[in-house]
Each structure stands twice: as C-alpha cells, then as structure tokens.
Amino acid sequence: MGSKEEGNRWQMKLKEELIKTQQLATRLMEVLQSGPGEESLVDQVLSAVSKALVILDAEGKAAAPLGDEYRTEISDLKKKKILLPRRVGYRRRAHPYTCRTILAETNEDGYAWRKYGQKDIHGAAHPRSYYRCIHKHDRGCQATRQVQKTDDDDSVFAITYMGEHTCADAATLPVQGPRCVISFESNAAGQGAPSLKKECDEEVVSSHSPAADSSSVFPDFSAFMVSAAAAADQYDVTSVFRSSTSSLDMEFDPETFNFDDVFNRGDEYIS
DNA sequence: TTCATTTGACCCTG
DNA sequence: CAGGGTCAAATGAA
C-alpha cells in the first residue's frame, strides 16, 4: 500500500484529531459538571481516546502496519512491562450511587452478574468477590455488587449492592430476589455517620425501612418481605409500611407503589 | 472457539 | 504505606 512516509502522515493526522477530541471531551466534562450518567459517558470517551493515543504512539514508534508479527512484539513489550499504558479513566468508587448491604442465604438474586475480581480482605475470614452487571458494556449498566461470606456464618452472604440496574428488561429482570436472612439499616444514612465512607452514601437496607429503595435490590419486593419476615418473625412486618424513621418520611400502598419513584427520589435525598 | 472465572498487578484513597 | 477496588491476561470449562 502506501509508503512508510504516508503511513506516518496519516498517523500524525489521526493523532491530531484524537487529541482534539480528547480536549473537547475534557472541556465538555468541565462544562457539564454533570450528573453520573453524563460524567461516565465523558469518562468513557476520554478513556477511549487516551487508549487510542497510547496505541497510536506504540504503533507510530514502530512505523509499521499492524501485522501479527508486530502485535506479538507489543504483547512481548507488555509482558516485560516496557509498554504498559497507564489505566486511563480509572476511577474507583467514583460513582455517586448508594450502597445497600444485605445478608442473604444465597448470592443469587436473579440478575446476571460477571465476576471481575476477588480480594482477601484484611481481618476478614473470607475473600470478597466483586461482580458487575453483565450489561456494563453493551448497555452501560453501572450496577455492581460485592459478595462476602460473613465471618461467623459461612452460609450467610453479606452482599453490598452499588448503583442501580439501568439494563432492566424482561431478559434480565430477576424472577425472585435473594433469600434474605436479614438486612440492616444504618439510620445514620444521610446523617454523616463517621463510619460511612464519604464517597459512598451507604444505605443499609432495613426490614424496617422499605421506603429506602428495596426494589433495585429485590425487584420482587413482596417476595423479599415474605422471606425476611419468615426469617425473622419477631419483626412486625406491617410496621415497616408505617415506619417514619426512614430517610423518606412517607406513606405508601405497597400494592400500587412505584418503587422506581422512591429510588429516584431517594437518591435526591441521599445525595 | 467462546465465554466466564481466576489471579496478580495496577491504581486510588485515607 | 496499607488496604481495597478494578483491570486485563491467563486459564479453564462448556
């Protein structure tokens, strides 16, 4: 095809355009001072562009087309840690979503999760597993969860949900929520409890506090209520619907109530 | 061959 | 610097 010189020219041009795009996205992010959705989108754009630049730089140095031979070379460089692009757009727990922790007998909740990591946690008997929604990439679903067996009971999972599913449809909606042994409430949620991480307005779902969004954790909320009540029959389940101790001081009819509304409003209150 | 999980390294926050 | 969250290559299962 073209000469080496021509190849370099289009690479330069491409790089120029990518840099321009990167700058524009950066400016856009500043302008937006945006909500999570837009910010994450801009992040993705920035990340993609930065990665492209890294690749382009690598390719450019070799000034050769991307043949298998060259790919192997890059792979080798990576192995030797000579060519390791810094993770761009890497943001930990940057999402402003709420966290909810429950205890459940199973880590199955009907959603499709992809495990992306596991860590031994300091002082904990069991490792913590990290899951994200399988639709993170194709639908941009930001929901993640952490699953860890409790120290005192191997059969009970402490599951922390972060973010909500934005991928929900008939194919992904769970048939039934997890069998919940018990769930807690930190009534300090929104009151700045010192133990709560700043970056995560942790809201621990309570059997007493259904007004907090339980639907994202247990889309089949009534099933959750029944199992929770069965597991802890000392709870006055009916009282939860009258509870005024929750962060959302409101009454509702569980038959007709729209949990999505609660969640959305809940976010406003929480954040 | 494809896809999910494992695992070690990277990176951020306190 | 330690601890923990995330990434992505390696590996294994279907």
Automatic annotation (TrEMBL):
GO cellular component: a single term: nucleus
Organism this protein belongs to: Musa troglodytarum
Stretch forming the signal peptide: none
One protein family per Pfam: WRKY
Record lineage: Eukaryota, Viridiplantae, Streptophyta, Embryophyta, Tracheophyta
Domain spans labelled WRKY: 102-165
Subcellular location: Nucleus
Coarse class of the protein's main subcellular location: nucleus
Keyword Transcription assigned: yes
Stored PANTHER family: WRKY TRANSCRIPTION FACTOR 21-RELATED
GO molecular function terms attached to this record: DNA-binding transcription factor activity; sequence-specific DNA binding
Top-level division of the source organism's lineage: Eukaryota
Protein name: WRKY
